[in-house]
Protein 1
Amino acid sequence: MSSIPKIVILGAGYGGILTAQRLQKELNYNEADVTLVNRHDYHYITTHLHMPAAGTDTVEHARVPISKLIDEFKIDLVKSSVKEIRLQDRKIILEDGTLSYDYLIIGLGGEPETFGIPGMLDHAMTIRSINSVRMIREHIEYQFAMYKNDNKRNRIRFVVGGAGFSGVEFVAELADRIPQLCKEFDVNPKNVHIYNVEAAPSALPGFDPELVEHAMNVLKKKGVTFKIGVPIKQCLPDGVIVGEGEKLDAATVVWTGGIRGNALLEQAGLEVMRGRVKVDEFLRAPGHEHVYVIGDNSLVFNNEGRPYPPTAQIAMQQGVNCAKNVVAAIRKKQPQPFVFTSKGTVASLGKGEAIAVVGGKKYKGWKAAQLKKLVDLRYLFIIGGIPLVLKKGRFFG
Amino acid sequence: MSSIPKIVILGAGYGGILTAQRLQKELNYNEADVTLVNRHDYHYITTHLHMPAAGTDTVEHARVPISKLIDEFKIDLVKSSVKEIRLQDRKIILEDGTLSYDYLIIGLGGEPETFGIPGMLDHAMTIRSINSVRMIREHIEYQFAMYKNDNKRNRIRFVVGGAGFSGVEFVAELADRIPQLCKEFDVNPKNVHIYNVEAAPSALPGFDPELVEHAMNVLKKKGVTFKIGVPIKQCLPDGVIVGEGEKLDAATVVWTGGIRGNALLEQAGLEVMRGRVKVDEFLRAPGHEHVYVIGDNSLVFNNEGRPYPPTAQIAMQQGVNCAKNVVAAIRKKQPQPFVFTSKGTVASLGKGEAIAVVGGKKYKGWKAAQLKKLVDLRYLFIIGGIPLVLKKGRFFG
């Protein structure tokens, strides 16, 4: 190890940004070199992407320049893609260079988990980045434009695969967008069909059943057709095959059914389950005490031995804990075990509607929608303070 | 002929609308039944379509509900597509019904003339209706979105086939739109290429050479690459082959190279040249004294024996003349020969730029751009008076 330890953070998502910000705050002058590597020069707010994907909000409300979030005098920002993680050499191979590290924090984004459904990777779109959601939005608009020229019914039929949080939040925005699109393109709304297909026996698996029922009723009223307990067997360029062979026509298929870890971790020789590394209590990769894994790539179990789902909430808490533990390691202090504290769950159901469980209490309708907004604003406040809240916050509508 | 003659007008373009409006004004109560047939319930302003096609203006500035333009107490409006014109039976077969007539005015829109260039009909888009321009706009935006996901360079390369008025006006708007799209999708403008390809030895064939040069300089400065005197040999899904075999990569090809008459006229047994009927001096189809052909489907020759190009200007004048002649025929009066009077020519070159020849005088730059706006406003005034000018007129920008 050199006299000044080098810390490299891969990915400026929820986990990576929180780690970087906390390190920036905790570390003394010349105590360590910190480099944050990210493919884009902006951080995006994944929990907000369902809106620009449907076109109900602009992407600019869902991203922030990283330079506004970190102090570039204290942290070096490298805009590049990671090609390889060489644990033995303590080196990161970038698209256009290399970096060596003493401490590594892997906060890279996950990848879509399609469970081997044939055609899904080829023909479905996923909500996972600014670029991908702009594509979904444009794809949907293009289908409306094409429908007015070729009259093919699959142009205005939509399948959302997965009725977990991402699926339900997106399908709600899509249902809100359809009337606008119908007006803009002179399409009869009665001809538009939106299917939300979920293999599990319930939508929003694991969520309070009363709220799930409320959510489904809200979405049905917005025109969504649910296919629950119905697996997608195959994804085609013009639709999906579900259940016992029924074909749902749809030129637009959006897959929200799952996330797995980034392939780079397995390629680095780390032991993974669905691409994720089961980290130790200090968030370190087993056998690599200088390598921390947070966010979508880390696997943390609760007291009942079940893994926490990958959420923004857990990634943020991991970022804070990880920064503390790296600083402790540099100072040769004791690290702190990571303990996840749930602050509750909120799912938006489009304009003015949401469901939430916070502090053991259930919320729905307008109140839950306000809670959703509070969660969003709180996050903006955490990473960027009042100026960011004022700049990116959505207070109305 | 029944006691009250039935007049059927096919198409509510420039010619059809002007005919309908003049008939409505000229005819006395119960002198004739007039029916206007149109595929859409709106009239569109073809000379304005290059803007919504590029996305520099909304389609709403380019269309007007037909019900605002005609008096539905005096004229019946039938929203339907014409499937067949049966001249012997004096019947029109519509998609969903039939109409019989005593006098027929064929003002249907033309079709793209691709001169048999292989692949052009399949892979190129054309600027010819509200539906087609919405598709072009969405196609372009979709390519930008896709480029950010697959990085294929043809996504942000554009070929406009034809550098006549339509081609040049569209290419200018496209060049104006590119910087906005680059900003919205985080694309480096340097990577975008726009080609305007013309087989003839000059852009804007037949126009004043000094103004043509000015136009080309304006467009080159906006980033357009001209290929003049270079024929397109083939159109592919991902570009065009030009000249001696050079491939121009482009996921977007817009063909503006020509218009031919509507295929329904030839199918009706009328003698046509490039789908157009060489009408007599009263705008009637030869051998069918109750059938008038105006606009894109009519062929009228000037004193030098050369056909007038199909323009909004000639279609409007034909509409006025045609209405007079139909009224004269009903009243057993002498018809008036059609004489085209050129009011000049204006071509817009995007924001703040245009070229014009009016009354033998040349104009360019800001002055010509104002002339272009005046022409647009004058048309709105002719068909809809002050209220339409205020509602649809573009006075600024």
Protein 2
Amino acid sequence: MKSKKTKNPVITLTTDFGYSYNYAGAVKAVVLSINPHARIVDISHDIPPFDIVSGAFALGTTYNYFPKGTIHMAVVDPGVGGFRKPILVETEDYYFVGPDNGIFSLVEQKSEVLHIYELNQKQYFLEHVSSTFHGRDVFAPVAAHLSKGVSADKMGMPVKTFEILEAFEVEIHSDRIAGQVLMIDGFGNVITNIDNGVFTKTLNGRSFTIHVKDELIQNIYRTYSDAPLLSKIALFGSSGFLELAISQGAFVNSVPVRVGDEILIEIGH
Amino acid sequence: MKSKKTKNPVITLTTDFGYSYNYAGAVKAVVLSINPHARIVDISHDIPPFDIVSGAFALGTTYNYFPKGTIHMAVVDPGVGGFRKPILVETEDYYFVGPDNGIFSLVEQKSEVLHIYELNQKQYFLEHVSSTFHGRDVFAPVAAHLSKGVSADKMGMPVKTFEILEAFEVEIHSDRIAGQVLMIDGFGNVITNIDNGVFTKTLNGRSFTIHVKDELIQNIYRTYSDAPLLSKIALFGSSGFLELAISQGAFVNSVPVRVGDEILIEIGH
Amino acid sequence: MKSKKTKNPVITLTTDFGYSYNYAGAVKAVVLSINPHARIVDISHDIPPFDIVSGAFALGTTYNYFPKGTIHMAVVDPGVGGFRKPILVETEDYYFVGPDNGIFSLVEQKSEVLHIYELNQKQYFLEHVSSTFHGRDVFAPVAAHLSKGVSADKMGMPVKTFEILEAFEVEIHSDRIAGQVLMIDGFGNVITNIDNGVFTKTLNGRSFTIHVKDELIQNIYRTYSDAPLLSKIALFGSSGFLELAISQGAFVNSVPVRVGDEILIEIGH
């Protein structure tokens, strides 16, 4: 672990607090009160309220661009005050602090998880923990103490697993990949849960057909502008996930796709 | 005062500038031009335009989570260019810089105010002061000079009081507390101006009845999820203020409450 | 150039990425991975999508408030993946990094441009450059390397000009200034492309008449509150550009002005 340690590492924030309230400010206040030298970077505070899938996607497609040692705090937390566990996940390069509700679903796909802790050491929380704002009262102080060098294993009790959302599960077989629709973006593009890495490795150069509803798509374009106007295409977006789109149009207006629908990639010979 | 001084303290910003314009960027530019080592933290730039009550609430429920020595700059300033004074308020732990229009109303409730200055020393302003953007031209340079160690009493002329908004005034008697509705939040919850500290100290364990319109509420819950479904409840939110809510519903849809309406807490024996 | 160099200069960001996605976070991640000591300041991430004029305005009216040596990165980039060049513009006090599509239009009006480079040295890009996200893959790493002291001339190939948008072009004659409507703001005020500096220097104390559609305006007020209620007025906003307004009203509701319409200032004797 020593290789990961850096002095005053970056702490990132991914939340659904919005920008109109003082919640993000309060989180930063607590971090800076404990570690005045912390460097805090917002990934987003505008994750749609309670939308854990979107939060997991935003964090999961960004975290590995940060310097080694970065502490990623994520709070999209509809179950605050209830039974979900507060956790700390440690990988070779990063720490993740937040509720155990699936917000860290993509971490395991991309990184080897070394340790998982249930946060239960109250000396690292604020003295008064409210029942509705664990971002400020639990996760911010834990992230701040971690950034000052308190070691992860002092923060909680080792546990074996953490929650992975079904939305991110992909079935991989030798002759097919079965994924699903993760999100529809603002342009009507369909973002699937099938990652470039999984796709390339499984296909290994073989031909393929993408099935979505009754549509078949057989080409992957490098960019929207390479595709014939108004044709239905597939491409890997900057996030690394397979997207279905219509060049200069909205895919969902032509094909009535919804979040959760199956995407099947049939692999040729 | 020496205990408060820290090297390059945090400067926080609470404004109604929004995120679509370059106003917040210009304020940060001026601060960094004067003190390149300043550490700037946004509380919010999305206070509803000209809504001093919301600005005072956002700042007033966040400022004391920041490290001692933090300089809080707040600019919700409908009277810019008119007669309102630019001020600097000094408490034991913090500085506050902004217009004297009530934006610092909650500071006096929570902290002992040591000094108030009317900012009139133009050598600490930008050379050209526009008539519409004192955030950039007056408050940012004052906050930056303060962060470099210029002492508060060099910045202006001592004055005796600063504006407190009526919206934050609470009448405290031995047998009742009379407050009012401060805001309605996005979920239809009613946020009152009655603070947990005032409530607990005044009641001192006695029973109570909360009157709002024709409704009576006699229990305070710790969290929404503790309350029976669709019952009208009171609780103290993460801000520390008394809130009226319906669990899984919108209080204002059941009881036609508006900002400014009286909230009376009758105290039993 | 040595006078400009500062240790770990500020890097500013002006983009249309919005705050709901992780794009701005990814850009910051890349910058911090290359230069962990970089200080990043948002000018805005909420420039209207693909609106290069608004981006150029936000950056162009803010950049010169930043400390000397600041690196300004701007990404409003509808042509990403196409033929527009990635460029680096160097002035006496600042660097500008972004697409060559007019986003730096106002830089030449206010600063002397010393060098322009087309970015073509791939060792300063991310290893894998996506076709849709040059903010993360090209401009962020270039800005970060620049902030670490790599000299601008190592980043690319000198070129002679960069794109200036027609929207910012102003014709200056001894007896008139011909500009145009740049933007309509949220209050219905008309923001023109005629700068205070150009105006003052050209008029040199002479009288003037502003023509817009069939309206004539002959006074410039210092502030909105100085003007008679509901009168049509002109004033220089905090950005330094000439604005047409109705005090307490919306100019565009009285005079049907649109973006691009001519504004003619006829100069008297």
